[in-house]
Design a protein that fits this description.
The complex is a heterodimer of chains A (502) and B (226).
Chain A: H1 2-19, H2 24-49, E1 54-56, E2 60-62, H3 64-96, H4 100-129, H5 133-151, H6 157-192, H7 200-205, H8 212-230, H9 238-245, H10 248-277, H11 280-302, H12 307-328, H13 331-362, H14 373-376, H15 380-391, H16 398-412, H17 416-442, H18 466-480, H19 484-498
Antiparallel strand pairs in A: 1-2
Helix pairs in contact in A: 1-2, 1-4, 2-3, 2-4, 3-4, 3-10, 3-13, 3-18, 3-19, 4-5, 4-10, 5-6, 5-10, 6-8, 6-9, 8-10, 8-11, 9-10, 9-12, 10-11, 10-12, 10-13, 11-12, 11-17, 12-13, 12-17, 13-15, 13-16, 13-18, 13-19, 15-17, 15-18, 16-18
Chain B: H1 2-6, H2 12-33, H3 37-61, H4 66-93, H5 105-124, H6 135-154, H7 158-179, H8 185-213
Helix pairs in contact in B: 2-3, 2-6, 2-7, 3-4, 3-7, 4-8, 5-6, 6-7, 7-8
The chains are: A mainly alpha (502), B mainly alpha (226).
């Protein structure tokens, strides 16, 4: 199994390097194949990750928790890689009849896009698979710089602004996370000796003997620092800008995977802190940040003008749910949280990919200008509706099961008030999301639009529909009959996290 | 007896270390109030030099030979490469004067003194003691980080904001010398390499920003809201 770990890290890197040299079409095919290959190999790792921790080459390590996050990332990697074929195909068709210069510009754009996409996916696959808090920080920092370049890729004024805000705010956040790393190093050095490499296993073995104050400090700094990248209130401000201005496949990866991977970093600190400090302190910190993020997102969802910002705030909402779910501390809620990570990756990926089709069709991101989508887009319209219903945790989709588990876990552990707040705010968010979606899909087209402007019904590209259909299937499988191995995996990871909690 | 133990005079090593850490903080204040971008970059180079010197001092005084390598690397990267990259950008941009802060210099410095003092004393009471460097150096490093945040918040041009981030990283480096001096060299090198990647990306984005808006100011970066 160690071979698969190395493969998972090496394959996207190889593809990244290959993308510097090959043509647009080859790069597209190569990226899609790599995405699918990494997803298949992660699925193959699942049974072996159940019982014991895998390590490879000293610096790679996979246990149940990390495999959950790699699974989500690889699924989205595959989905967005396929989607990107259709996404760039339209632009390729436009430039085909134009001057050589235009074609050169497109070729450079495409090369940068695939280079960035693969490097981004590679860094996000690495982050959960590296062994140790220091390496984890390095991997997360690499995700930041690569994705900042991807956000700036479209080279519009908005993209430049969003990229600058993103790189500055996220890097500063990671500066705080680096402080967290060295304070955790200090805590560990009191037990493990002056020189050690922050690997997970020794730290967790000795977690009960770590000095309290540095661990407490490290945990709060980690929640604020990595929380910047998760999108927790009040350090979420880069998130809607970057999600709205990035190319759509990148938005999907940002929202579905990047936020989750940063949350993984917080979970690692949680795992150590909960043993060292007892459950009360870490859980309270996460509860406060979670409720604040959820509240902010639910309010912003009610009043949005931009479809991609709408979905970005929905991401803030879901990250808030994750934080609240972890703060409940019940194994049931924790396995719900991990299922939520997977289901959110599929649902948010779908929603962004659907939004990308809508933006293509209407030529704008403004919600006001979108209407009658259900007739104009025979596939993407209903699929977007399904994605939004899934995001709102409607049965029978995966998010229903995961949020149900979180709520049930909260009630079982007598976190009644927090659970009630959670349900109320999620309902509020549901209201905001569905109002906007109803307007896009079912409102008749306003007369103000000239008749020749009204685009004919039809999908821009089949490649932009296929991954969304796959996402719906995944959501249904997660909601109705999750495979036994997957349930075992989630329960194992949740049990690892619940050590030390009541 | 107890009193004598508590108030013993600091050793030469402690004195030197604290002085260098204090220089790092003072240079941070210098950056905060520097009006010319070039001056700011030079102050950053000076601060990085101080951090490298501190690493060498620890390497010498506490016999951690690995830190010599770290000091040399950080000297090369933070005193030479990063400032050269930014100076190159400034030469292209042909802009000298830093974007005026949202606040006057006096207010900036007063707020920074307050925030820095808060960081200094807040860390002081935590009781984190290191065998390598005196605790005051840790408090100073946290003050540097907080003042760097103020610098990023009040300045309105991309170069100052980037320098603010790089100097924040200098503050974290000092903190890591105090509490994590034994960290394996490979991790330290990886951190530095990461910083280099970040610097390159910051450079690319600064250039993109300058190409689009024909200025280094961030004043027009206010379209995305809500």
């Amino acid at each position: 199994m160690a071979v698969v770990l190395v493969l998972l890290v090496a394959l996207p890197l190889a593809t990244t390097i290959a993308c510097t040299a090959v043509s647009h079409r080859v790069a597209a095919a190569l990226t899609a194949l790599t995405g699918i290959a990494t997803f298949v190999s992660t699925v193959a790792v699942v049974p072996s990750a159940l019982g014991h921790t895998q390590t490879a080459l000293r610096y790679l390590r996979a246990d149940a928790l990390s495999v959950v996050f790699v699974l989500g990332t690889c699924f989205l990697y595959a989905a967005t890689a396929i989607y990107a074929i259709g996404y760039l195909d339209a632009e390729a068709r436009v430039v085909r009849d134009q001057s050589v210069e235009q074609q050169m510009v497109f070729a450079r754009h495409s090369r940068r896009f695939y280079l960035g996409l693969n490097a981004f996916a590679w860094s996000m696959i690495c982050a959960p698979l590296v062994n140790g808090l220091a390496l984890l920080w390095i991997a997360v920092e690499i995700t930041t710089v690569v994705s900042a370049l991807l956000v700036a890729l479209d080279d519009t004024e908005g993209a430049t602004e969003a990229a600058w805000k993103y790189v500055l705010i996220a890097s500063s956040g990671l500066g705080i996370a680096l402080l967290a790393t060295i304070f955790m190093y200090y805590a560990g050095s009191q037990v493990l000796g002056q020189s050690y490499d922050l690997a997970f296993d020794p730290l967790m073995h000795k977690a009960a003997h770590l000095p309290q104050t540095p661990v407490r400090l490290a945990f709060v700094l980690a929640v604020v620092g990595y929380g910047t990248k998760v999108g927790l209130f009040p350090v979420h401000t880069w998130l809607p800008d970057a999600h709205a201005e990035a190319p759509t496949p990148v938005s999907a990866l940002l929202s579905g995977s990047l936020l989750a991977v940063s949350f993984y970093a917080i979970l690692r600190y949680y795992q150590i802190s909960v043993v060292a400090l007892g459950p009360r302190f870490p859980q309270t910190v996460l509860l406060v940040f979670g409720v604040a993020s959820l509240l902010l997102a639910a309010l912003y969802l009610l009043e949005q003008h931009d479809i991609k910002r709408l979905l970005a705030y929905s991401s803030v909402e879901h990250m808030g749910i994750l934080a609240i779910g972890v703060s409940f501390g019940a194994p049931l809620a924790l396995s719900g949280v991990l299922l939520h990570v997977l289901a959110h990756a599929a649902a948010k990926g779908n929603a962004f990919m659907g939004a990308g089709v809508l933006v293509r069709k209407f030529g704008t991101k403004e919600l006001r200008a979108m209407a009658d989508g259900i007739r104009l887009l025979p596939w993407s319209g209903p699929l977007f509706l399904i994605a939004v219903l899934a995001l709102s945790a409607m049965p029978p989709f995966g998010l229903f099961r995961s949020e149900f588990q979180i709520v049930a876990g909260g009630l079982a552990h007598a976190r009644n008030a927090a659970t009630a707040v959670l349900v109320c705010l999620v309902t509020l968010a549901f209201l905001g999301l569905t109002i906007a979606t109803t307007r896009i899909l079912f409102r008749p087209r306003p007369d103000a639009v000239e008749p020749d402007d009204a685009a004919p019904a039809g999908e821009p590209s089949r490649w932009m529909v296929a991954p969304v259909v796959a996402g719906v299937l995944v959501l249904l499988i997660l909601g109705l009959l999750p495979p036994a191995d997957l349930v075992d995996l989630l329960n194992h990871a949740a049990a690892d996290l619940a050590v030390g909690a009541p | 007896m107890l009193l004598a133990a508590t108030y013993s005079a600091p050793t030469v090593f402690d004195g030197i270390a604290n002085t260098v850490a204090l220089i790092v903080l003072l240079l941070e204040f210098g950056m905060l109030r520097a009006a010319l971008l070039r001056a700011q970059v030079r102050l950053y180079a000076g601060q990085s030099l101080a951090v490298s010197v501190l690493a060498a001092v620890v390497a010498f005084g506490r016999h951690v030979p690995e830190l010599y390598a770290l000091a040399a690397l950080s000297l090369l990267l933070k005193v030479v490469v990063v400032p050269l990259l930014i100076i190159g950008l400034l030469r292209e941009a042909n802009e000298e004067i830093a974007g005026s802060g949202t606040l006057g210099v006096t207010q900036e410095v007063l707020i920074s003194i307050g925030v820095g003092a808060f960081g200094f004393f807040a860390v002081g009471v935590l009781g984190i003691h290191s065998e390598v460097l005196p605790t005051a150096a840790l408090s100073l490093s946290v003050a540097v980080v907080l003042v760097a945040f103020i610098l990023m918040i009040v300045r309105r041009d991309v170069v100052s904001q980037a320098i603010g981030f790089f100097s924040l990283e200098n503050g974290v480096s000092v903190a890591s010398l105090v509490v994590a001096a034994g960290m394996p060299l490979i991790l330290e090198v990886a951190f530095l390499f990461d910083l280099l990647v970040a610097v390159v990306v910051f450079g690319v984005l600064m250039r993109t920003h300058h190409r689009r808006s024909q200025s280094l100011s961030t004043e027009n970066l206010d379209r995305l809201r809500g």
